Description:
The chain has about 290 residues and is an alpha+beta fold. The protein is about 40% helix and about 15% strand. The protein folds into two domains: about 15-85, Phosphorylase Kinase, domain 1 (2-Layer Sandwich); about 90-290, Aminoglycoside phosphotransferase (APH), C-terminal lobe (Aminoglycoside 3'-phosphotransferase, Chain: A, domain 2, Alpha-Beta Complex), CATH 3.90.1200. The protein contains nine helices and eleven strands. Strand 1 and strand 2 (about 30-35) form a beta hairpin. Helix 2 (about 100-115) runs parallel beside helix 7 (about 235-245), helix 3 (about 140-155) runs antiparallel to helix 4 and helix 4 packs parallel to helix 9. The model has no long low-confidence stretch (mean pLDDT about 95). This is Phosphotransferase family protein. It comes from Actinoplanes sichuanensis. InterPro entries: AGP_Transferase, Aminoglycoside_PTrfase, Kinase-like_dom_sf.
Amino acid sequence: MLIPPLDQVLPDGSVVTEVVPRTGGSLHSVFEVRRAGAEPLVVKRYTDDFRAKQAKELYVYELLADVGSVPRVVGADLASGLTAFTMVPGRPMWEHPSSPATDRAAYLRIGRFQAALHRIALPGYGDLAAGVVDPVSDNLTYMRLRFARQLAEFRAAGGPVSLHDAVARRVADADHHFAACTGAVLCHLDLHEGNVLVDDAGTVTGFIDVENAQAADPMADLAKTIQFETSGSAAKRAALLEGYGPLPPFGAERIDLYRMFHALELWTWYSSIDHTEPLPALLEDLRTLSGRPA
């Protein structure tokens, strides 16, 4: 892995003592930059094909400046695709031994963090780059479009016709639930235990990875966390919702609708990479959530 030139993104006066490659996924390279007499930083380098992801992170972290518990951008160079961030201490929650007490405290904190995100209003529904991309003005239109695309991908990937049709019918009857969301907010939409950092005691230290963030219904964000992490744990789900606070009108119904969307999305993704183990459980979720008899 080549070490990038760092001068353009590090604070003035930084004396680099070591650069350590870290796991960064397939879209970019990530380095821990250790400095003499200063806290280490994380530097991320995006390839030319994924510069929109860099712009997205810069935009989202600017929105999160007053939220806390997330990385802070200390330097960015769009020409080279480099961004430097403060380092949030800790390791991913899913690497830490689990216990009922630490799980409850963590999910209370996750719920409070999501509630803070959802107080950040955005001007329309859509993906994010240096703003909302092609914003849609209302949630009903936005979710009709998203479900139509996701259902088509589900069928193209070999998803059962009966479940495709059951979900489509359920969505067609839910206009009033989608319309109950009257404004888009900042949603993380990937807030699973791999993106929640904890210390050695299991206490949450921060939240990372905003590459999936969108302007959306806040219940879609809660639903993604529930579908990804808590669908098999009533205790985790209860703590998440307790930390979040009161739900908006039709909140529980909206969560179930978005859980269907995320189950379709996850089933299609896992099928595309031939990861078959989760597929039966996701199909069962789709049966339950769509109201189709087994």
